[in-house]
Design a protein that fits this description.
6-stranded mixed sheet, 23% strand, 350 residues, alpha/beta
Length: 350
């Protein structure tokens, strides 16, 4: 896994309207969404987006309805063209691609999982899973074998000959994931992929994605409006509001250090004990030898509370992959459960 981003978005703006280029100078000078609509009847979809997406990580882009998250993901494979900015994949600006290179990008580099499943009703489950391979011109035997392999991985072995209407919603979304995986694309775009599912099925799908990711190390760009889902899945979290990035970074850091009142409100109702990990609140060992026990750096704080019985005078040694990495004082854990106020030094945008 490299340290360089696989996908890099730089200075991206999207303006919807009759003549976006005519109003771009005003937007670049700071004109906001409401003023642009009132004075020029154009809609500011995205404003100065700068995000790096690293290979093998899950980047979650979240925000409320109208924040620009689905607009942003559709720029990556150029289903939407930006007003200005650049989108680099492996160091190449995809906005310079002609039809042939763009077709290759969509066929071989990026796959997409949709909210509404987007399965072909007249084709069997295995035929749907093999669609990307069919587009590439592979033989029927080759593509169906690949489709069946990934259906097995997502827990649908034995359902290959069924049709989509014979499956539950969760099963249909598993077919969508199998189809994306069968394409063997290094980048997966997932636009509100689980939001149409019932809560329990949605949790199962999140767990499935994380389980697959342990083995496959795909670069996943995942869109959601649900903060619990974002915190569960994200290696890198990007929070949008009105088309701009309010805060981005490691989810645990954002939860502990909100830099804007908007983020404060977002995280205020989160069950912090269930979401926060030991690694986020541990301290250096500093020669200490007296510990109540050993815990894993990725354990959540809820686990520690149960382990300690609520005793705030205990301290635990923290390990990762069998190595000592820190110490956790239960008093520090309790402090971490109190929501933090937005940093006064943060830069806020109107």
């Amino acid at each position: 896994m490299t340290t360089q981003p696989l996908v890099s978005i730089k200075g991206l703006y999207k303006i919807f309207g009759g003549n976006p280029q005519s109003v771009l100078p005003q937007v670049l000078k700071g004109m906001g969404k409401a003023e642009l609509l009132e004075k020029h009847q154009h809609v500011l979809g995205l404003r100065d987006i700068n995000v790096d997406m690293r290979e093998g990580e899950i980047t979650v882009i979240m925000g409320l309805s109208g924040s620009g998250k689905s607009t942003l993901i559709r720029h990556l494979n150029r289903l939407i063209e930006p007003t200005t900015g650049s989108i680099e994949v492996r160091g190449e600006d995809v906005l310079t691609y002609g039809e042939e290179k763009l077709r290759d990008l969509r066929r071989n580099l990026m796959s997409m999982v949709f909210q509404k499943f987007a399965l072909l009703p007249h084709r069997t489950v295995e035929e749907n899973a093999a669609m990307a391979r069919e587009v590439r011109g592979e033989t029927q035997a080759e593509r169906l074998a690949e489709g069946r392999k990934w259906l097995e991985r997502v827990g649908l072995g034995g359902f290959e000959k069924r049709y989509p209407h014979q499956l539950s919603g969760g099963m249909q979304q598993r077919v969508g994931i199998a189809r994306a995986l069968a394409s063997d694309s290094p980048i997966m775009l997932m636009d509100e992929a689980f939001s149409a599912l019932d809560p329990l099925i949605r949790t199962d799908m999140q767990d499935l994605l994380l389980e697959l990711q342990k083995d496959l190390h795909k670069t996943i760009i995942f869109i959601t409006h649900d903060l619990d889902e974002a915190l569960k899945l994200a290696d890198h979290l990007v929070i949008l509001k009105d088309g701009y990035v309010v805060q981005q970074g490691e989810p645990q850091h954002i939860l502990l250090n909100p830099n804007d009142p908007y983020i404060e409100d977002f995280v205020s109702d989160i069950n912090r004990a269930r979401v926060l990990r030991v690694r986020s609140v541990m301290q250096p060992i500093n020669g200490q030898t007296d510990f109540a026990g050993v815990v894993d750096a990725d354990d959540n704080l809820e686990h520690l509370i149960g382990l300690s019985g609520g005793d705030t005078y205990r301290t635990y040694k923290v390990q990762s992959n069998g190595e000592d990495v820190g110490a956790l004082d239960m008093k520090a854990l309790v402090r971490a459960l109190v929501p933090a106020a937005a940093s006064d030094s943060s830069t806020r945008r109107s």
